[in-house]
Design goal:
With 690 residues, this protein is α/β, with parallel strands linked by helices. The protein has 17 helices and 34 strands.
Length: 690
């Protein structure tokens, strides 16, 4: 069986192939923004050619498994390239989306007086009231008035609505009214994308459920269209294997499920990287790692403690709340394509605007004229002009210098000084983001190992670590295809959740057990449909709880399988107190607890990924010296002649003292003077502070 992982990023499409011998092969192709399926097929074609096969021959293997991550849904939402959405809501509650619990100025300070008012994805004239009512108990007080639904459909057809979201009160506990409206919409609007809140997020809290469902409808048509085109192209190439999609929650699921719940692909690509970071941290004996992924457009960060990937259900994507459980991977607009500019104070800033894949940084020679991070890296001598992507692209330093003059001349700087300022500025932006989710949350960043991925990450990772005082950095062998590597370590499965909403003294244990059993049965069915054997299905329970009167909940994972009785209930409550103390340094054992949501994770048992080892070094590291070139490490000293090593020739045990540069086919590792780099048995580059 051959496993393939493909991550379509903003600039490059990355591919890893794990062959039947357990060896991993990496490939990269340029992303094609006009049609991402082209970049997907192009990188597969490269992979097939490396195995001496045509693409149809490569894809015809029935045992071929492809896991695919994409930022398509995320980018569509952020850029506003979404479908025209209509909302059917319980009469009197169509403005829930706009009120949004009073949240305002989500992405800026509350003191900014010039932030325009929030504009919901669904405009008010397309948010249509429907007479129906379900109580919080699940009792139907007012049956669905179907005439209202038909009138709403006529209105939406006249307005050429492309997607419909059906969101009724308390449908998470009884979806009968919502299900009827959904069936009518799908029957009467066959060309439109139609979804309902009980399918997308069947838990309590109206705004969160409404917002997530409307977002799913907004990105649904573009996501479903992309998946349909991709499956057709693969079918035309005689694809006989299985295609899975990476969820933002950190697992992989079927294409059909992804099309039905398009919102689950939000943050799909970045969600994969932390799984790989855990595996890499274990290789140096730690479960506390800081995963960072610097691509062409963004810098994604994730703090992992005790080998547990953090998740959150408060995910703001632009101005929209996605309340599904997603991997907590905050990002900042700082990538290889991020553009440098001069602000109103006369200071250089970098990002969040990006040159992306088309036209890309000026040095690509594809029409870009604005100074980007990669242009600065090239001028500083950190990135090779003649060996970018293993020589597939030749970078043009003259164009990079010309672009950087746009910020250098107005400030009275020469080009190298401006390039160094761009380099240090983007490093500071990344370091600030890392501080935000570590030091500002009470964690000492020096207790974590930094795992650096992304095509541009290894160029900047050492300097960022130096800024923050991090003693150890891991640059993985497959840093340039970091998210794709994470996908090799991900689980196939899905998360389920149902609302309970009861204090401990009033908890109906029979209902709790019934909800767990229903979710577990659904999980087994979903995985069986994907060809999973019953003995390979793994079920894990958890409960979201809080102290009575609290606003935020805590996820408790110590929930046993089987029947939950009084004894098991007491152990769950005790686990909640422990978890609360671990998170907030205190507990309140005398205060009653409240149960909110019961959760089940259904996944497939899989073998631990074993990385292939490389031979130990038999000769001196100087024999791996490729060349020397000037690099600007300190503007006060000017350019210094720096050794450049051939990464392909380095073996386990080789040590290189900084300052130095290591050139791999898909990335470049920059070793600052404060660090020494060693090569381990699986070809990771370990930077230790001297």
């Amino acid at each position: 069986m051959t496993r393939v992982t493909i991550d379509v990023g903003g600039t490059f499409t990355d591919c890893l192939v794990l062959d039947e011998r357990g060896e991993i092969h990496a490939f990269k192709a340029q992303t094609t923004p006009e049609d991402p399926t082209l970049g997907f097929i192009n990188v597969l074609d490269k992979a097939a050619a490396s195995f001496g096969r045509t693409l149809p021959q490569f894809l015809s293997d029935p045992g071929l498994l492809i896991a695919h991550g994409t930022t398509l849904s995320t980018n569509a939402l952020l850029t506003g390239k979404i479908a025209k959405v209509g909302l059917l809501a319980t009469e009197g509650f169509r403005d829930t989306l706009q009120i949004r619990r009073g949240y305002k100025n989500v992405n800026t300070t509350r003191f900014n007086l010039f932030v325009p008012p929030y504009r919901p994805v669904g405009p008010r004239y397309l948010r249509l009231p429907i007479r129906e009512r379900t109580h919080y108990t699940g009792a139907v007080a007012i049956p669905l008035k179907e005439d209202d639904v038909y009138r709403a459909i006529s209105r939406m057809k006249a307005e050429r609505v492309e997607a419909v979201a059906v969101c009724f009160l308390h449908s998470y506990i009884n979806p009968s009214n919502e299900r009827k409206a959904l069936e009518i919409c799908r029957r009467e609007m066959p060309g439109s994308y139609v979804t309902a809140s009980h399918e997308v997020l069947p838990v309590f809290r109206e705004f969160e459920r409404f917002s997530t469902t409307v977002v799913s409808a907004a990105v649904g048509p573009i996501t479903a269209s992309y998946l349909q085109r991709l499956r057709k192209k693969l079918s035309d190439l005689d694809f006989k294997g299985t295609l899975y999609m990476v969820q933002g929650g950190g697992m992989v699921q079927s294409v059909e499920e992804s099309a039905r719940r398009a919102v689950s692909l939000i943050c799909s690509g970045p969600a994969a990287a932390p799984s790989g970071a855990i595996r890499l941290g274990q290789s140096v004996g730690t479960d506390n790692v800081f995963s960072v992924d610097m691509g062409g457009t963004s810098y994604d960060v994730c703090l992992i403690r005790n080998g547990v990937i953090p998740t959150t259900d408060m995910n703001w994507v632009g101005e929209e709340l996605v309340a599904m459980k997603l991997v907590d991977v905050p990002s900042v607009g700082a990538g290889g394509g991020s553009i440098a500019w001069i602000n109103s104070l006369g200071l250089i800033e970098v990002g969040p605007q990006s040159a992306g894949a088309d036209p890309g940084p000026a040095c690509y020679g594809r029409g870009g004229t604005e100074p980007a991070t990669t242009d600065a890296d090239l001028v500083l001598g950190f990135v090779p002009a003649d060996y970018f992507l293993g020589g597939e692209m030749v970078l043009k330093e003259d164009l990079a210098r010309e672009a950087i003059r746009k910020v250098a001349d107005p400030l009275g700087l020469d080009v190298p000084q401006a390039a160094y300022t761009i380099f240090t500025t983007v490093n500071s932006v990344m370091a600030d983001k890392m501080t935000e989710i570590s030091t500002k949350r009470g964690y000492d960043i020096r207790d974590f190992v930094l795992v650096v991925g992304g095509g541009a990450g290894p160029v900047h990772g050492g300097h960022v670590a130096e800024l923050l005082g991090i003693p150890k950095v891991i640059v993985p062998r497959f840093a340039a295809t970091y998210s794709a590597f994470g996908m090799l370590n991900m689980e196939l499965g899905r998360d389920f959740a149902r609302s309970i909403i009861s204090r401990q003294s009033l908890l109906d244990l029979a209902r709790l057990n019934r909800l767990f059993e229903e979710m577990e049965d659904e999980g087994r069915q979903v995985l069986r449909e994907l060809g999973t054997k019953p003995e390979d299905i793994v079920l894990k329970r958890s409960v979201e709880m809080r102290y009575l009167g609290q606003f935020h909940e805590v996820l408790v994972t110590d929930v046993p399988l089987g029947n939950v009785g009084e004894g098991e209930l007491e152990s769950i409550v005790a686990a909640f107190h422990r978890r609360h103390r671990e998170l907030y340094t205190f507990e309140m054992p005398g205060r009653e607890v409240e149960f909110l949501n019961a959760c089940v994770k259904a996944s497939v048992r899989r073998e631990h990924l074993t990385l292939a080892t490389i031979p130990r070094a038999k000769d001196n590291v100087e024999r791996c010296l490729k060349r020397r070139r000037p690099a600007l490490w300190d503007p006060a000293k000017g350019y210094e002649v720096t050794p450049v090593y051939d990464g392909e020739r380095l073996a386990a045990g080789h040590r290189i003292s900084g300052p130095a540069i290591i050139e791999e086919r898909a990335t470049t590792i920059v070793v600052p003077g404060a660090y020494e780099c060693s090569v381990d048995r699986v070809k990771n580059y370990i930077l230790n502070r001297r």
